[in-house]
């Protein structure tokens, strides 16, 4: 029986036929792995996701975590799922073997995580945060910090979080106020409050490792004065034993429209609830150098952005598969030309508009999955590169694609969830079917790790222009290679390639025009429109790549690939034309709007 979480066949196509991830084993970093091992990993993750994560997805949504003033309680199945994942040694699956990890390619680990995101994104959130936390400390922490905190996270004894936002600052990290006062013993005492911190209080693990952004008094203003600290829920002894409670307290739980199974918290640091009152403050340990916290945290944020994008893809994907299954089995109505009411009803999948909705979902989720895995492949190239040129080329591409990999699935795989509800008809709007929860869960991804506005400013205001445009030039070269290959194939592929090339060259021209205006406010006024157009052209490129691999193959799977590509080029890519018109005209409508006119 086929899974309705993800398509194993599609994953195999993307991983092995397109990205040829098995070729990574030629790199020294990945030599101990094999294609058979990669397949076994997918088997294992599908089984664990189906057996331990999916069954309590609805239960965790209905029975949200509760806080009695002392202890947070989650449904017991969350702990069982955590333990199953940890027992399979999956927390450190892409981390260095020297740290106790399996050193798997990141492409495989993110494909593996997709199963869990599709099954239960709330429970998976605890794991994703822990893995990203461990990666950051492993890269920037001291050897003692790695031994004390990373090793227990990899084994599943400890979990991890990221504590950035504050009530008065929101996404504007330059305005955070949490302070860290240095002590004579090399530690710091933290005072302040953090908001919207996922996974920051529970009883799933022995300890919770918070990565906290804070200011050391006397440091420079803005982001240049922010440092990063490890602040554990419980202090850890030199022998690795968990000791007394640190002065980190839970002020309350936030209750969201989706992803309700993972705790979302308000944390207070140094309010004197724990530890002796004669020496207040939550004990923290500086990571790396003073005032370099934002630089370090961006490693975790960028990893989380790729994970959020994959989470959005996975939720869109499982909604698509469930609506497809429903459409195949739901009889209703007849073909438009059949007037005889005594003839049998047909399955709704036979209706053209239902086909349209299913085809749109397929184009969104399979295009999004391709982008997520492609970006993970770029991470692997950087990790396993045998030359600086190869590493730098991958870094240029990943830098410019990361805002797209986060934002595009958060917008368009959510649209897939919306269409999945509609395919279900009235049933789609009820809690008896999964698709309404998938929509609510996915809606949060538009704000996780930065809104579209933040991603668009990062793309247009930073990534496009930094290094004298080297990122954009690298992507232009890479897309041009695909276009050249497709044009050489001739026929339909050449037509699609020319369409993509025209759209991309127009985008590059418009990009230059935006900055040629000399008015940065005008250039950035419609950055979200730019982000949307950029994303759609990139996904068209993903579909051209898939068409190239599918061109001469036979069978329904490949026919479906080609048809989804045709759909995207016919229905979706043309949407960028009026967007580029608006950008090229340097439209000032939103910029010139005055607050009093609302």
From TrEMBL:
Family matches, as InterPro entries: Acyl-CoA_dh-like_C_dom (IPR025878), Acyl-CoA_Oxase/DH_mid-dom (IPR006091), Acyl-CoA_Oxase/DH_mid-dom_sf (IPR046373), AcylCo_DH-like_C (IPR036250), AcylCo_DH/oxidase_C (IPR009075), AcylCoA_DH/ox_N (IPR013786), AcylCoA_DH/ox_N_sf (IPR037069), AcylCoA_DH/oxidase_NM_dom_sf (IPR009100)
Cofactor: FAD
Domain Acetyl-CoA dehydrogenase-like C-terminal: 481-593
Domain Acyl-CoA dehydrogenase/oxidase N-terminal: 76-156
Protein's UniProt keywords contain Chloroplast: no
Residues in Acyl-CoA oxidase/dehydrogenase middle domain copies: 162-239
The entry's keywords: FAD, Flavoprotein, Oxidoreductase
Highest taxon listed in the record's lineage: Bacteria
Domain Acyl-CoA dehydrogenase/oxidase C-terminal: 292-457
MF annotations from Gene Ontology: flavin adenine dinucleotide binding; oxidoreductase activity, acting on the CH-CH group of donors
PANTHER family noted in UniProt: ACYL-COA DEHYDROGENASE, ACYL-COA DEHYDROGENASE-RELATED
Family designation: Belongs to the acyl-CoA dehydrogenase family.
UniProt protein name: Acyl-CoA dehydrogenase
């Amino acid at each position: 029986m086929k899974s309705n979480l993800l398509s194993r066949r599609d994953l195999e196509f993307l991983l092995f036929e397109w990205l040829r991830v098995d070729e990574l084993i030629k790199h020294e970093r990945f030599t101990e792995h094999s294609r058979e091992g990669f397949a076994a990993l997918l088997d294992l993750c599908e089984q664990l996701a189906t057996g331990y994560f999916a069954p309590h997805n609805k239960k965790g949504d209905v029975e949200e975590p509760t806080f009695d003033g002392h202890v947070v309680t989650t449904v017991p199945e969350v702990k069982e799922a955590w333990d199953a994942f940890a027992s399979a040694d999956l927390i450190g699956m892409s981390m260095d073997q020297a740290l106790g990890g399996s050193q798997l390619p990141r492409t495989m680990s993110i494909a593996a995580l997709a199963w869990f995101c599709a099954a239960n994104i709330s429970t998976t959130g605890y794991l994703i945060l822990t893995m990203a936390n461990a990666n950051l400390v492993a890269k920037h922490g001291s050897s003692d910090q790695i031994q004390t905190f990373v090793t227990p996270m990899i084994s599943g004894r400890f979990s991890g979080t990221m504590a950035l936002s504050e009530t008065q600052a929101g996404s504007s990290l330059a305005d955070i106020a949490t302070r860290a006062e240095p002590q004579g013993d090399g530690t710091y005492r933290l005072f302040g409050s953090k908001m919207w911190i996922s996974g920051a209080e529970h009883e799933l693990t022995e300890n919770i490792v918070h990565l906290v952004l804070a200011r050391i008094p006397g440091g420079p203003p803005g982001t240049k004065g922010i440092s990063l600290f490890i602040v554990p829920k419980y202090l850890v002894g030199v022998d690795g034993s968990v000791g007394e409670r640190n002065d980190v307290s839970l002020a309350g739980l936030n209750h969201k429209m989706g992803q309700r199974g993972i705790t979302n918290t308000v944390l207070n640091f140094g309010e004197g609830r724990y530890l002796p009152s004669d020496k207040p403050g939550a004990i923290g340990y500086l990571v790396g150098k003073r005032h370099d916290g934002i630089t370090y945290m961006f490693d975790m944020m960028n990893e989380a952005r790729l994970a959020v994008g994959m989470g959005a893809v996975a939720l869109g994907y499982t909604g698509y598969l469930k609506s497809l299954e429903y459409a195949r089995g739901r009889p209703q109505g007849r073909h438009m030309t059949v007037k005889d009411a005594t003839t049998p009803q047909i399955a709704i999948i036979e209706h053209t508009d239902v086909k349209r909705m299913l085809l749109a979902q397929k184009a969104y989720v399979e295009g999004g999955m391709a982008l997520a895995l492609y970006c993970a492949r770029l991470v692997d190239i950087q990790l396993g590169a045998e030359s600086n040129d190869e590493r730098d080329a991958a870094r240029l591409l990943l830098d410019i694609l990361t805002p797209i990999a986060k934002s595009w699935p958060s917008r368009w795989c959510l649209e897939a969830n919306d269409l999945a509800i509609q395919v279900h008809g009235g049933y789609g709007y009820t809690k008896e079917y999964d698709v309404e929860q998938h929509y609510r869960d996915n809606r949060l991804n538009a704000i996780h790790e930065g809104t579209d506005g933040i991603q668009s400013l990062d793309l247009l205001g930073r990534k496009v222009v930094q290094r004298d445009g080297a990122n954009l030039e690298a992507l232009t070269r890479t897309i041009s290679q695909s276009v050249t290959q497709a044009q050489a194939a001739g026929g339909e592929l050449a037509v699609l390639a020319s369409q993509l090339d025209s759209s991309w060259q127009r985008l590059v021209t418009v990009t230059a025009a935006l900055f040629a205006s000399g008015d940065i406010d005008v250039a950035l006024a419609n950055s979200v429109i730019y982000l949307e157009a950029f994303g759609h052209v990139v996904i068209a490129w993903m579909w051209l790549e898939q068409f190239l691999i599918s061109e001469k193959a036979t069978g329904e799977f490949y026919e479906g690939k080609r048809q989804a590509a045709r759909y995207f080029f016919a229905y979706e890519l043309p949407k960028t034309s009026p967007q580029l018109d608006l950008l090229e005209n340097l439209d000032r409508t939103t910029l010139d709007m005055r607050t009093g006119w609302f």
